[in-house]
């Protein structure tokens, strides 16, 4: 499969009769396509299916199974009973904000005196800040509790502990070489612990502490934990699935005024609340505030119960989110412009500018990683402090945290996960850091450039798609990390319609159908207008993506959200027109094929230096090595000539130009009357020069291309002699000759057949001919 972006890993195993019998006995009534999907995902029994589709899961592990939870709860209870001043030190993203509020509300519920502090990323940075800790210690804080941070905060935590202020760390980020010297550390992957699920978010960890503290799960905190869990993109399995599904249910009846206003403002109905609501509506707004400045308004937005204040804060959140979107777009476009100007995309993109807003660089890095399929590290340069502070994102097979660990000598500090990290580089180490990463990227070239695998869960036909099937699939959700949306494949579909969408015309809407059925399916390809530009209506391609329900004016329609496209064999690109498109000349690594030596020579100087030009009659040897595309500039005299070239290389793309200066197909086959008219002309005129063929064609009202072939036929039949450009009538011959069977006529008819196929049939028909005649 020649695919645009991913390496497709197909899986379409038919379930066995035993499975079918068990499903029937269990009374599970699902569509055959859904059952195939379950089978392919390892849900091979009714029990496993029922567990996977359960929308009210109850997996919630004992919070005291977390290492040092008992010690932590005792310390918090002591602080409350002795009226100590407690500080909750949070983080500036959605996970940190919700973590802070969960623990604040829990401690206040048992009478604790709580202050909260959400660090400003531009002033305090991520995690414990020693200057800020000093201020709180001096102000009389007795106990500091970190949420969604702390496992890398050695210096600040050491200071607080040495100053007599206990620090309780609650975190979920990657643990580095050593843990800080805190009073206690609550972490689901604590090296001395044995907690059964290590993928909690910061809000999930805070919820466990709150549950242990209150001796029951605080219902009002579950929706906050769901927001933090989804927004921080952690695994949506095990108890995270319980947290998210429970939180979504509770959110429909939320008592939080800010959430009520936001959901009313963004959704037509509250029953439409789902993971996307958090991922695309709630999370981005909470994050935007912290990305651009002080995150405290986002915390107040979630905690206030005053309608007027909540409305004011919603306006502010929306404004910050819009500003964030504009900054992301501006920086993304500037980097793309720079990358596209290079001869090739770097193995790792590293860039830093003083004018780049540091709060949005993580989002930009994510988008560029997705676009270029390579690690991306983007930095804001602080001229006053002489440092580069940045965010990084990585591809699946490059662990960014481990990679940065290999070059920690050049880093002031860093932290994060396998796919995302934050880091700071001093200006004096910047060039050394760039060189070290570039050299290491070169050593990792094969790993970085290997295709990103895409697991295909189900192969389908268009007639299998229905609203019912999509609703069945959605029962397996919520979808996210470790439980991705099922990817379905439609092989060899026909593009019936295609049009561009969106203000900037970057999206594509297609109507597709499979050959076995007449039913059409709508496909939406976001931000793929450029890469799908060469796929024309009438093309046959394969599409993969996820199925969704589009609602418009109370009408539901199934649609495929396209993730990638490809083709079995080369992708055919229709370039047939009256003139050659100028950009066709500059196709790299391409073989341009002509029928005419004259046109071949004319074209040779125009092509890209990595491409080659030949005629169908040239010998094809090893000079084709390294070529990826075949460009059919003229149809051959015989389709066999095309077959030979087609089979020489596993072409990725075939560009069909097939330009003709004289159309044999449109002129038609020379008839017996045409031959009789030309014969009579020769009897009268006896001879004429070849340069006068145009005049002869005009006089006889026969197309020139026919006249040329008919003269050759007469020559083969010994009716005429051609010497030094002069055509002379020969003496009359008695034997009867079938002119239409002579070689020149056979050649003409073969050329007509080739032209008819390559110039006047659809790409779909041409591909079918290839399948039948060659493959």
From TrEMBL:
Species of origin: Facklamia lactis
Pfam families noted in UniProt: DHH, DHHA1, RecJ_OB, ssDNA-exonuc_C
This protein's record includes keyword Nuclease: yes
Any one GO molecular-function label of the UniProt entry: exonuclease activity
PANTHER family given in the database record: SINGLE-STRANDED-DNA-SPECIFIC EXONUCLEASE RECJ
Residues covered by the DDH domain: 85-229
Single-stranded-DNA-specific exonuclease RecJ C-terminal domain location: 590-770
Entry keyword Heme: no
Family: Belongs to the RecJ family.
Domain RecJ OB: from-to ranges: 456-564
Full protein name: Single-stranded-DNA-specific exonuclease RecJ
Gene symbol of the encoding locus: recJ
Domain DHHA1: residue ranges: 349-439
Record keywords: Exonuclease, Hydrolase, Nuclease
